Amino acid sequence: MSIEQTPPNRDNTPDNDVVEDRISDDRISDDIDRIHALCEILEPSFEQIEAGVPIEDESLRDKFTELTVLLAELHPADVAAVLESLPPRERNIVWLLVAPEDDGEVLLEVSDSVREMLIESMDKDELLAAVDDLDADELAELADDLPHQVVYEALQTRDEEEREQVKAAMSYEDNQVGAIMDFELVSIRADVTCEVVLRYLRRFDSLPDHTDKIFVVDENDVLQGVLPIRKLLVADPEDMVADVMATEVVRFRPEDDVEEAAQAFERYDLVTAPVVDENKKLIGRITIDEMVDVIREESEADMLNMAGLQEEEDLFAPVWDSVKNRWMWLAINLCTAFIASRVIGAFEGSIEKIVALAALMPIVAGIGGNSGNQTITMIVRAMAMGQMTGTQAGRLLKKEVGVALVNGIIWGTVMGVISWLLYGNIGIGLVMVAAMTLNLLLAATVGVLIPVMMDKAGRDPALGSSVLITAVTDSGGFLIFLGLATIFLL
Amino acid sequence: MSIEQTPPNRDNTPDNDVVEDRISDDRISDDIDRIHALCEILEPSFEQIEAGVPIEDESLRDKFTELTVLLAELHPADVAAVLESLPPRERNIVWLLVAPEDDGEVLLEVSDSVREMLIESMDKDELLAAVDDLDADELAELADDLPHQVVYEALQTRDEEEREQVKAAMSYEDNQVGAIMDFELVSIRADVTCEVVLRYLRRFDSLPDHTDKIFVVDENDVLQGVLPIRKLLVADPEDMVADVMATEVVRFRPEDDVEEAAQAFERYDLVTAPVVDENKKLIGRITIDEMVDVIREESEADMLNMAGLQEEEDLFAPVWDSVKNRWMWLAINLCTAFIASRVIGAFEGSIEKIVALAALMPIVAGIGGNSGNQTITMIVRAMAMGQMTGTQAGRLLKKEVGVALVNGIIWGTVMGVISWLLYGNIGIGLVMVAAMTLNLLLAATVGVLIPVMMDKAGRDPALGSSVLITAVTDSGGFLIFLGLATIFLL
User: Which GO molecular function annotations are given, in alphabetical order (chains A, B) (predicted)?
Assistant: First the structure.
């Protein structure tokens, strides 16, 4: 029976129960509104506040005090949200007022871009003080953004074991379990009674966060099983751990993908799970709070990518930073739009003769893009949930083509009749029906094939699929519509 | 000290630790591939299997046995994923083979459309058996999809208290905390020692899932505080609960929005939290596993909406169901495309004279839509995180206009030069620069204003924003470009 790695320590562990005095969400959002208002009033006095000069104006001084009090009551996670929502100068005022002992927690919570900015505003001693309270895995998380000198000095104050842990955590990619695993855990041997375990636990000042199970290991730290606290509490004190523990556990390797780990947590309703090395030796654990962050970040990344933003953008980033974050997708979009433009250019002769074509062609392209995105979203989602295997693609293609055919005939006919009435030319109406149906069929086919091929090529099917399909349905739609019109109407 | 509401019961509580023998994710996905393959082989024998006629062909019989064994090993959550990924007949084969005692759990896990289909395939006795093991809150979740007669008879087998719980849970909307709260919890009084609590807990057969804290109530069940298990385990057995418990807790009302509750869980790293009525009387609790589902569903709903799907669609839904799920967005898209088409129609005279305009106009519209979606995504995200207050909108508008101006000048110039070279007409080039810049400015302005106005009007800013902005930048882009060209080039 041993304390695994870092001994739990009251100062070190953020105490979950202090958190619990943030009661109603309503109050929090009122506080945040008030903080925004106060920051705006104090913004002109930024230089004075930064220089530490006392504020002379009494009403301003009151505001300053009120702001200090409000911030002191906020949880670090709420402070992080406030910091993200403020423009640079006001952000600095708030950051100056955050209690130094919360600095580390806040830095862990804010987005990457805001974190960089906050770290830049701090000197070495402030940074060292901020990271002093952090666990090894948390220090590792910040290390990439900290000046080398700070990381070096912060490591000097830790013992050999913790230094190894920080180094180990830093050696994994951001999307690997090893990068987010936690070294603070409680482990015991299988050959003791539950009574002994309870007595052993009582010797701790506090247990690591989210402790819902105790890890059972042998003398070489090889994982034997887990003892859920729920079982420990109802077990007969005389029962041996070996008889109460669960021997088959969902466990992870540090090289595992965090998104897969998050899916396992979600599917099996886990709160914590052990991380073991290739010899099944227990090296850490992962917890549900990290997994919730993974799920949130994953879905946000998908959404940002769908909207054409490369990464989470600081709300008040300088204009130039925003331009850089957005230029790539704009450039790709311009390239595909240019190709579509050249397709139209090839039919300038036809458009000169029937100018109505120019007005109708965006309708054909638009419905194809819309419908193709519907198909691709279905397929990407099925892939993410592991529901696409060998023969599924063929069957889904059949179904999507069927849907496209029905939609094409319905909406094609609607627009065909409208075009006929509008331009008094039944030929134009018929070309609309045919072009819309064909473009929807193209959209359905490409909407299934693009993600399947990207997946086969080892690429993330979510990323860029939407741009690609819009490119195909735009250029394809113009080509089909103008081509049919040239053949049948001229 | 009392057991709150439903007494915990070994049969009733799905045992988390049985779950834990699903080890590696890799093995699961191999199993699922194999199940897909077996289902395809067995599909032609569907009628026989459904009728319960023994399969004569020996090799088929072996396959059938293999499928049965594979399914028996899967966790209900995995069975649900398999069911969602199969076409109707194969889905029915799998459903016939699922152990009756897992039926209820599986029904809770599958998507709405698949759930409806599975329930349709079952007779009354099968349904009654399936829901028999479920908790009150789980029965309430299924009740909407079950035939009335089944709900009625299922309620008859429960005691008065449970019937009240089911009715209570059903009285809340799907997006309210009351609809997902759990009635199974452990509560104690404040005036006992930790030793007494430990002895009390030992009298349970098992504790409710995710029990990370015990709720402390007075004689009227009014919540006094919570006793985290982490604290109970390290406390001196002689300590009074009143001295160890946390008195200020994050608590929810059954009317609260589940998404806000999920944000609180995420922010404060909660595992469970109490639900109280207006008199602070403890009526239930919510758990992190439900919150993870909320976060996942919320982000999926956003993604489906962005792609123009009304709701989660059964992968193998009949063509007609898919058409119904998708028609609304296609219709909206067609309307906006039609408006854009009429804008172009108004300039047919200009296009007849300079046919190059027809080829260039989609570029102007396209970049506006792309950039507008970038802006709107930033704003919607900031709103979702509660970072938008009164004056923020004005400042963000200023920033977004700045970004649009820079992008307009850069990309406008690029495309302007290309158009000039392509058509040998510097006028066309200059109109491109001006039109692209103006459309980007329009996109930025509308990209900030649309979500702000939708929020003020009490609408969900995420829903439909993307369609709306594309409509504005398409019609606006055509109008600006063709308008400028008509004024300056003709």
Answer: magnesium ion transmembrane transporter activity; metal ion binding
